Fold each of these.
Amino acid sequence: MATTYQIAKLADTFKAAGEALNQRIENTQDDLSYDDLTTLTNKAQDLLTASESLYELATIQLEADSAAALDKLSSATDDLNKALKTVATVQAAISITAQLVGLAGSIITGNIGGIAVAAEGIVNAL
């Protein structure tokens, strides 16, 4: 199917042709027979009606394109949220690891106060 832009450009062309034909009819109506005038007027009206239909089709196509883009944006947002949760989980794991290193250092050095603080930090991180 044609793009929204292509449909709109075709509608512009039909509209311009219909308006040009109407202008031509207006400029030469005294020289035209009734049948010619009726035929040309009907053709101009057909062109203008077709342009309106094409504009409507372009609007429908734009709506469909927008819906697809919103679906992609929603999916990308979900992926980003999952990635942020993963980053938060990794950050929490790093924090707990740092607390464990601190606890290990306090145990090795026999720092009783440091052991209590490090243990509390680990519990809070969980």
Amino acid sequence: MTTIDISASKFIPLSAHYGLNDNIVLDATLFEFNNGFNLIQQPIFTNTQDVAIGNNSFLSITPLRAFYDFANAQKLVDKGEFVIFTGLKNKKSNKYITNIDNVLYASATACNVLEFFKIYKTSTGIGYYVSQNDLYATVVLEKGKWDIVMSEKLTDDPYNIQKFYVSSNQTMDTLTIKSMFTVPQWSSKWTVPIERFWSYSSITSAVRSNGLVSDDDYLPENNYCWLTTVDVGLFAIGFDCDIKWVKYYNEIGDKRFNGTVDIKEVVRNIPLNYLVSCPYEKLIQVDNKTGKMDVNISNLKNIATSENNYGDV
């Protein structure tokens, strides 16, 4: 009988790889041992609830966990195609922007869909428009005021009073809106772009582009941050793996918002059981003495989205 010597270094460790989308990476840790044997440990297979083999596939079920407990997903925003419809609520005052006679105020306790803003790239590719009902957010060029009003679209905007720069935080639920306008009628020092963020008056609640942030540290306690009524991540390219429950108004007492699409609450990072399947007859990719095994991941809807009980979420 012929025998073949096999050393531990001849074994190649395998890692699960989500081949349907390269932006989704499954967490993995490589353990190397002195005898040459290597092992890859992945959270997606930790505390597996059940396993089965059938139809040339390996199947396993994860315990209850959020997707980002075992994976990472890169979300890319194509700024050239970036368009969102959203209400804006100030993070400090907890008040929505409302339109009163085409002047914007951060004074409303709720946001009707008719007061959603459309935020999209300008035709020149420089800056964004913030429009509402065919009117466009415009900075009033008066010294010490700079209110934001809604007016007709300008065919020529040499002072950039209708152009804004929009940034989002990492959680994709907060925006900052920065003006880049010039004031030619003032002294020469004001002909350079004036960088001011959308803020509001503490006296009149009028939305004004007079908030100044000297660096990129947008602290939660300042009044330049605006919460969105939609998840900006929904407009990213690729798959947003975060499972969410969206709760709308269905009140018995105060029924004002029952007929709207206003979002009352968003619950994130919902723990689910996931079915992981691997067709083991498929070719395994070998790279640098490790192997990649393509898997598919399906979330199982085996929990109830009750009205008042979110479990440990």
Amino acid sequence: MRSRSSCRYRMAFFGHALSAARTLTACLAVLLLFITSVAHGEVACTATEAKAMRVAAQRLLDKKDLTGALALLQAQEGKCSWDGVDESPLDYFWLKSDLALVLHKSGKDLECLRVLAPLLEPVDPRSLLRNNLADSRVADAISYNNDLCRRAYERRYAAFTSRPCTNDKGDQGVEVPGGCLLLMAAPTSYYELPRREDDDTYPEQICPRLVVARRGKRSLRLKVVDSDTDDPLTDISACCNIESSGLSVAVQGKSVRVRVLGGGHGCAGGSIIADEDAVYEWKGLRLRLLESNRIARH
């Protein structure tokens, strides 16, 4: 008899069990469909092919071959677009759910969250809601897998804390050695600036600033050095979404790291929706980006 955890795992991964005969037939179908699609240069996948690939991946998991299952599902995901699965997009969602769970079991929780984010964003055409699947079994599996990945992902940042503090004006921030770290609003907005594409001072004008307030002393502004396009504190398309409530710090000896969070539409408009999550090393008055884990939701 399978344990309850085993049954739950089956639900999250495959949705329903197949007989040994059907499994063998499906796996043979995988090979035939793969050869046929390569021979004809096809990119889109059929519902039958998607199901067969999922069965083949389950067989690899049963053999404890996480690497093989992950490679198989990622290869199939590259072929199966949301509107590329014939008959029904349901198989597209099961394929994504399976891939997310294998990514989690492989320790790739950020990649798992990135796979599932568009499926859970209501405005995205690929979402469960827009495809009338919000109350389905596959929605339950995707939600369960997303929670698994989110909890595992957040464990990486267990050392970060957000003890509240305020400056002399009552602005709220988080405690740091020697003061209170605050996110101060930008001087202006993207839409109030003149359109000069060669002006590299844009981030200075439209991005919020991290400031250390000290009782009875002048506040100190922290500055990002060696920034790149993935830096949410200087990226003019994303910096407006950083939230003061998303600040946290981790102190270990003389090492201080700052984590910033936020999310929303691009600062310059458009349909893009993303969550920002970045960690900086703080030395003196300088912040250096250590990791940027942006998750696109739409």
Amino acid sequence: MRKSYNTNGAVFHSTTKRIIGIMLEKQQAISFTPLFAIWPELEQITDKLAKSWEGLNKLLPKTDFKNQRRATLMQHQALLNKKLLIVEQQYYLETDSSQKFRLEHIINEIKTDLQKLQTEINGLES
């Protein structure tokens, strides 16, 4: 079960794909179940609504979010590699030591970002 930790946020049950409660305060949630006990019509309404959504979801084309995310990450990776190449060229052409130091710092940041991207891409592929 995933929880939204914002006040008045929804509590989402990942297995049933339904909202099952509401956050009242930080890390305090209330389930809809007590409401159903005193208001049976509410449970019937939410069940009908859930069935309608399930029917709509069957009509919609399936989206492969994992592949979309991978493609986005790989595009970002390609852009960072281009940026790295440009900054490295500037570094090798630079003669001022303070500018070289600044460029070296930028190069290291780009390499760190590239490693993070590659880790995320690898995680999607496994």
